[in-house]
Amino acid sequence: MLYYKTKEEIELIRISSLLVGKTLAEVAKHIKPGVSCIELDRIADTFIQDHGAQAAFKGYDGFPNALCVSVNAAVVHGIPGNYILKDGDIVSIDCGVLQNGFYGDSAYTFAVGNIKPEMQQLLDTTKKCLAEGIKQAVTGKRIGDIGEAVQNCAEGAGFSVVRELVGHGVGRHLHEAPEVPNYGKKGRGTLLQTGLVIAIEPMINLGKKEVIRDKDNWTIKTADGKVSAHFEHTIAVQKEKADVLSTFDYIEEVLKTK
Ligand code: MG
Ligand code: MG
Fold first, then answer.
1. Cα 234 to averaged position of ligand 1 atoms, centre (Å)
2. What is the distance in A from the centroid of ligand 1 to the CA of 208?
3. Do 232 and 130 meet the contact criterion of CB atoms below 8 Å apart?
4. Cys bridge to 133: 70, 122, 146, 177, which one at CB 3.0-4.6 A?
């Protein structure tokens, strides 16, 4: 079942998605060597509550925290714990909020201190993959157009695309139809129509594409132990150009001052 949102509903999803961007920016201020993942989670949880919203992931299928914090070889769904970030790490912070009955969902992968050039290239490429996917998210295209664009971008740079986890519809539910894979063939899959709101979220590995689930039953990690990156925006499909409802602007303002 696909839900096409009205203009009013899209504006509500924008409010939630912008709060996610502001929350990620608040977290960004504190990302540095020496900070623990659980501290970042507390900062986000408090910030979201102070803005009259709920952390969407907390309690979702029993997930214990407000943020998914995935360090280095962790791809997504990392449980923020006592691990202390150190110079040279990369950390994906994934955040969702529920406000006014609608969800917003976005993720950003941060460098902690100085990272290896190959890791920086992975971050830059994954962000570019997201942008390439968003370019395809226009009325009349198909889900496969997004997947092919993301896959070409990642594999063209020598990286690999995680298959087991995918983007999704967003609205009154955190995860709605359709699934939005980061691989595929153009012209295939669900037709994109105006008002469809989806989260596009490339998960790109430095090494091989295979992933495993950690003993904690949540964290997805690369099978080869090499690092992985993840960027996500919530967008609304529109004619000619997607409307990007979440934003990295607040985050990048913070990063500029670091
Ligand atoms: Mg997310
Ligand atoms: Mg998502």
1. 9
2. 22
3. yes
4. 146
Quickly tell me which residue has 């999704």 as its tokens. 168
Which ligand approaches the C-alpha of residue 55 most closely?
1
**Spacing, Cα 236 to ligand 2 middle (Å):** 14
> Nearest bound ligand to CA 69?
1
Amino acid letter, 61 = D
Ligand nearest to the CA of 96: 1
Per-residue pLDDT of the chain (258 residues; tens, 9 = 90+): 999 999 999 999 999 999 999 999 999 999 999 999 999 999 999 999 999 999 999 999 999 999 999 999 999 999 999 999 999 999 999 999 999 999 999 999 999 999 999 999 999 999 999 999 999 999 999 999 999 999 999 999 999 999 999 999 999 999 999 999 999 999 999 999 999 999 999 999 999 999 999 999 999 999 999 999 999 999 999 999 999 999 999 999 999 998
Distance 177 CA to ligand 1 centre (A): 15
Q: Please state the domain extents for the chain.
A: 7-256
Ligand 2 centroid vs 202 CA: distance in angstroms? Answer: 10
* 182 alpha carbon – ligand 2 mean position (Å): 12
Q: Which ligand is nearest to the CA of 106?
A: 1
> Taking the CB of residue 257, how many other CB atoms lie within 10 A of it?
7
- Taking the domain 7-256, which CATH number applies? 3.90.230.10
- AA letter at 88: G
